[in-house]
Amino acid sequence: MIQFAGIALILIGIYGLMTTKHMIKLIIALNVLELGANIFIISVGFVKNGLAPILTADVPSDLLNFVDPLPQAMVLTAIVIGFGATALGLAVARKVYGKYQTYDLSVIGGEE
Amino acid sequence: MWSPVWLIVLPLLMAFISVVIKKQQYLLLNLSILLNLAVLYLAPQGMVIIGGFRPPFGISLNFDRYAFISLLLIQVLMLFATFIAGPLAKKYGTVLLVLLAGINGMLLTNDLFNLFVMIEVVSIASFIISTSNGKFTHTFHYLILASVGGVFFLLGAVMVYAYTGTLVVQGLFATLGQLPNAISLIPMMLIILGLAVELKLMPVGSWAKNIYGNSNVLTGPIFAAVLAPAFGFVFGRMMGEVVVLNPITGYTLLFMAIATFVLGELAAYRQKDLLKTLAFSSIAQSGLAIILFTLNLPFAAILLLINNALAKSILFWVATGVSTAYETSSMKGLRGVFYNHRILGITFSIASLSLVGIPLFLGFYAKVTAVMAIFTTGLIWIPVVILATAIIEGAYMMKWLLQLWSPAKEGHLASTEEVPEKREALNMTQIVAVCLVALILFVFGLVPQRVGRVLSVASQAEISQVETVAEGGGQ
Amino acid sequence: MSMVLILEWVVGIALIGGAIACVTTENILAAIVRLSLLSMVAVVAFALMRAPDVALTEAVIGSGLVTFVFVVTVKELFAKEDKNEEVH
Amino acid sequence: MKKFISFLLILVLAFFLMTSLNSSLDFFNPPNSLDETRMSNAFIHKNASGGSDPVEFGKSTGLEDGSANIVTSVVVDYRSFDTLGEITVLFISALGVGLLLGAGTGAKQRSGFILKTAAKLISPLMMVTGIFIFTHGHLTPGGGFPGGSMMATAFLLNYFGSGSISTDLKSLKWMESLAGVFYIVIGLIGLFVAGSFLQNYLPTGTVGHLFSAGIIPIIYVLVGLKVGSEVSGIIADFSKSEVTS
User: Fold this and answer.
1) CB distance D146–C72 less than 8 Å?
2) Chain C contact for A12, CB < 8 A?
3) Which of A106, B288, B430, D103 stands the most exposed, by the fewest C-beta atoms within 10 Å?
4) Among the listed ranges B38-42, B311-315, D3-7, which one has the minimum average pLDDT value?
5) Residue in chain A lying closest to C5 (CA)
6) Residues B214 and B311 in one domain
7) Is residue B282 part of a domain?
8) Residue C39 in contact with residue C60, Cβ under 8 Å?
9) Interface pTM (ipTM) of the complex?
10) Is B121–D176 a contact, with Cβ atoms under 8 angstroms apart?
């Protein structure tokens, strides 16, 4: 089910990006999209009987049945990159707000 | 010791240092570019492992002729760009250092996920550079599009991993080619869509006209002469090593690229604003490079990318310098401006003639090679479209050259009275730098075959893929 | 159905519902709060997918810092909302 | 109207994706265990560069990678170069936020007594938790990114508590810079000593011990410090910024 949710979040994020002109809502939709992508990536490496990929004293050494650790490492990277882009996007949005007193791009129109 | 990893690490190290010694940012920037050129000269070519684990377990760098040529071009243009941008480059010194590290990483890396990370580094750095235009809504537009593109690229890379179990770029097409068409379709589309934003491909390249069209002396050359060829080379690498096209995706990509090319040139023709004209021209040229890479003609594409990078850098330097000095970039306001700036006018003319592809310039050789190469693929209508569009390009470039040189109104004799009052556009050292690049372009135009021989080695290194869209779909 | 499976369904539906609610609302502050909640549900999803590292990172960065940055960005809108109830 | 078209487009896309993914990948029905041929098995069994030593928690010594947390060993050892790129992304966006919003003079945050006291109590606790998380990144879930962000959150709470940013921003810059420089220098030592950039050149010790895994804990501490200072910088810039013009 969570696999479906990941793809659904990606699609909902794209829908959000297409239907709004409000800067903050665009970034929110982008975050939903990124979240969906992250869930999707995690579910690529998921195996049913797998354990969290951490060696502990309880894990028998002859049967290391873990989920795929590589997608998790990728998502770790992607989350941080997403935060960086979000912070920068909001900073830019704030600059626009300072200039036009609104976050709505349809109000601002074409900036020439 | 002389490992190509220095090309990435050195600018990064300088960037981290430059945060605390802000005054020396500019020095560190130029120093690292010069050291990079030395590393480029000294480092032996071949695969370089990072982290001590061989691929596919670890990340590796692929430093071949193709990477060498692209890196050399980027370092040289970056050096000139920072030199001419002067005070602006000082303010954005750290950002430019990170940008340089990211571009070098992007061109060197041999790992699909690492490529995604490097693309993100480059795009975030380019967002920041584009804010120096002061048009924040444009930056925002670009930021959203590029971030979505990044997510698509990431999804494509992950799906490639899911299907093939590897992320190594080199020879990935062989593994992907064994998969059924229906399976490889989605990751390939995602990877191409991810790159399409930065490549300014038709529907998603709309950011470029605003960012380029309002550029200043820093952003114009950085975007048109450094970022555009860098992403062009990355796309070439992807087409050569990763992307497997079937007739449907291949023709879709081809039509999108042709539409970008033709509509871009038409839009450029209709512009009355110098920077906007150059913006649309850049979009169109990017489309042409994509056509060539899609048809698997890397040699012609590399020639075209180099010609465009050199020509566009000169055009943007002169155009932004002049339009900043005269506070306008419209055709009316700049009429006859080269009467005041003859040297700039000559370099601008050389660059635009080479861009259009007039004989005796590198652009001519590039365009002839491109057209001849496409003829060999059997798709006769594409060269016809390209030639027809080249006429449009020639027409508007000539129109601009005439207007910028001639102070006369239509139907009157030229007189110097209508020339705008002289203002300083670029200072002496900047003019010397622009002239140097123009000289490089000019000399390349004199010995195109020699340049071609050097580049053909690079294109052979890049291309290991045999199957092309032309062979697959043209029959 | 085992407990885990039921939980997976609940989390999946919560994710989809939360995302729709987050994207379709006209109120900015509500959208931000819903994004934060969505991110917290995603933390549970990551934990269910046996990704504790990712869950922890998402909890701190995704639902903590991102929400903070959003709220600080639109803090002027709070002031506006006090005056007139409608915020777009 | 626009919403309707978008909705239809999304539906078509959804149908296309679902059918394609369902037919091509056993994505909606994950396998019971990881495929034998997957390269990730090498990360789990720690035999990417050959060898067949069994991996046992608390017993195995001298493996190619000594981290008990396998995600950490991928992030900081096998694919450490990605992490370097990642902190660069955060570095550059913190810098960009600073360039865009840095001109703000600092709005005073008025906070009540309860918030003040609570913040003073909690922020050292969070600081310690953050430090714990990134020093144990090779043993427990977490690592440098959440740990560093936790530290930054403590910084944020401190700001709400005291009403102004007491920590010297200059020292944050120094920490940020030095952590990055040391990361690269550690990598370069690997280049000179072991032959490739970011290669592990310290003994990997026993899996599961605090002092093990070679350069992994060192790098993760540096990542934690760097992320902490960068995120603190972003928070400070956003908090200080006022709408100007």
Assistant:
1) no
2) yes
3) A106
4) D3-7
5) A1
6) no
7) no
8) no
9) 0.92
10) no
